[in-house]
Amino acid sequence: MVERDRCLRAIRMGCSPRDIALRTPQTILQELWNAEERSAHSFHRSDRASGAAYSYEELADIGQEPQGYSASPEDILFSAEETREEANCLQTIFREVEKLPAGQRNIVKGVFVKGTSQSDMARELGVSRAAVSKQLSTAVRKIRVAIRDESKETKNTTTSAVCERKEH
């Protein structure tokens, strides 16, 4: 169970299982329990009704969706677009982490991937916690700038592609 959890989290984070810290079985079970509770709670909250039957028009008038609600085509497109944007953002993050100097890269991977505290990283590297904190914030700033720049490039590319289509 512990190893499978490690592998699944590595897949979700897009890195090697060796880069992911093992979690205790209790932690894994607690996370599963919390997810089940959230799911059950949202089901019971959405299932509350007075017992009266409503027509589709009546539900629409009071702002409620019928029980058989499914996502609209627009919702599906927006969801797919958001997923693509998130994937592009993650690719940018991974690419930029690899471009960082070795010291900053090790600190970023230690803190964000392995879950090591800044104090433990400082002990491991033989430097102060403030030095680790400064290196980490510098690395995060570089990654944010790269994401912002790529976002601007993507918007410019999309805008120019849309303009080209309109001209033809």
Walk me through the structure:
By secondary structure, this protein is an all-alpha fold. It has 7 helices and no strands. The protein has helices at 2-13, 25-46, 56-61, 73-99, 102-113, 118-125, 129-167. It is extended and about 70 Å long. The N and C termini lie far apart (57 Å).
Number of DSSP helical runs: 7
Q: In which range does the helix fraction lie? A: over 70%
Strand runs, count: 0
Which outline best applies?
Answer: extended
**Structural class per helix/strand content?**
mainly alpha
**Largest sheet descriptor:** none
One letter per element, helices H and strands E, the order comes to HHHHHHH
Beta-strand portion reads under 5%
Are there runs of 5+ residues with pLDDT below 50, and where?
159-168
Over the alpha carbons, how many angstroms does the gyration radius reach? Answer: 23 Å
What is the arithmetic mean of pLDDT?
78
Distance between the termini: 57 Å
Question: In a few lines, what is going on in this structure?
Answer:
With 168 residues, the chain is an all-alpha fold. The chain contains 7 helices and no strands.
Topology of helices and strands:
Elements: H1 2-13, H2 25-46, H3 56-61, H4 73-99, H5 102-113, H6 118-125, H7 129-167
Helix pairs in contact: 4-7, 5-7, 6-7
